[in-house]
Amino acid sequence: MTDFEATRAMFDLPEGVIYLDGNSLGPLPHGVAERVARSITDEWGEMLITGWNKAGWMDLPARVGDRVGRLIGAPAGSVTMGDTLSIKVYQALASALELREDRRVILSDTGNFPSDLYMADGLCRTLGPEYQLKTVAPEEVEEALDETIAVLMITEVDYRTGRKHDMARLIARAHEVGALTAWDLAHSAGAIPVDVYGANTDFAVGCSYKYLNSGPGGPAFIYVAPRLADKARPALSGWLGHEAPFAFDLDYRPGAGVERMRVGTPPILQLAALDAALDVWEGVDMQDLRARSLELQQIFIDRIEASCSDLTLASPRDPQIRGSQVSFRHPNGYAIIQALIADGVIGDFRAPDILRFGFTPLYLSEQDVETAAEKLCAIMAERRWDQPEFHRRAKVT
Ligand SMILES: *Cc1c(COP(=O)(O)O)cnc(C)c1O
Q1: Residue 350: in which H helix or E strand, if any?
Q2: Is residue 362 part of a domain?
Q3: The whole model's pTM is what?
Q4: How many independent structural domains does the chain possess?
Q5: Cβ < 6 Å from ligand 1: which residues?
Q6: Do residue 264 and residue 362 come from a single domain?
Q7: In testing the pocket of ligand 1, which one of 108, 159, 192 has its CB within 8 Å of the most ligand atoms?
Q8: 206-255: per-residue pLDDT in tens?
Q9: Looking at the structure, do residues 269 and 177 belong to the same domain, yes or no?
Q10: 3-state helix, strand, coil in the chain (%, to 5)
Q11: Which atom of ligand 1 sits closest to the CA of residue 207?
Q12: Cα(326)–Cα(300) distance, rounded to whole angstroms?
């Protein structure tokens, strides 16, 4: 059994704060600051440019990629790290479209994160007028899969409602009609059990600064199915995805396997932060994590529904189709979240009316969840959110 008391002790959370936003930016685990400081002083400071070899910087995207891979069911050597998730979405889609050159349509759903849709649309515009991004309602994805679809691009867990797609089923359906699949695991990696290899997706991408706690701006990951990794063209053909970057050839030759998905110089300090942050996962069983997350979510839903009836559950009631977050709707959602933050409980708001709460058993206790629900219901009962300071919109919500 996973020892969640032990994992909780591995985080540096500020006194008096209950953090229900680890689905957006994970908190700081112990050891990360020291590790980054060591990378700066002992590696960069002392080794200077020789750090690329001596400190193993050049291999960090692959080494850390393997550690992330273990959390999403990816075999060793099938994941690499770098860039941002939006960039990795673009690469996966461009690669997939090229592998299915007889087709022109990317299929996604209206619950997807806008950046994924923007990147897909931008790619289609670059490729030409015959390329098209088609979006349907989340419940209609399966029906919309037909022989015109080149690639199915789906974010497994909806960033607003937490609704979870049946990944294995949709991949099987997509393959039946000859489409490739690219899964966005931004709200899955480190949140729920994932088996990219077993589910047989062609591509998967995700970020590390949410449930994997790498810190703001941490690098993204990309998985390419080993059966495709030597065939997929990376689209963004940077020198570090080249077979021999230091041959400085004028012609591009893609590197072996997923290494070709690398683009430029890797963010070493952010990778060091992620490497240290991943230590908290040693000894964590993803099935235990899932069970604990659902337990905490249920406590929260029950408490809120029992005591503040003006909040409407926006997440699926069925835990089997819910990720690791719970959302409620309220027309004054923004101000309510601001009042809650002022009271020491951090959640976030997503337009137009979603109050969003992430559940991360590594550092959240039952007591935290109960206190958070109590505070939220007290704010609602006393209308404490209805003060001018809580209505003022900041740049980031
Ligand atoms: C968080 C998130 C992103 C963010 O992309 P970045 O390029 O890392 O800013 C993209 N897609 C999804 C589904 C997300 O949840």
Answers
A1: strand 348-350
A2: yes
A3: 0.97
A4: 2
A5: 84-86, 113, 115-116, 155, 159, 184, 186-187, 207, 220
A6: no
A7: 159
A8: 999 999 999 999 999 999 999 999 999 999 999 999 999 999 999 999 99
A9: yes
A10: 45, 15, 40
A11: 8
A12: 8
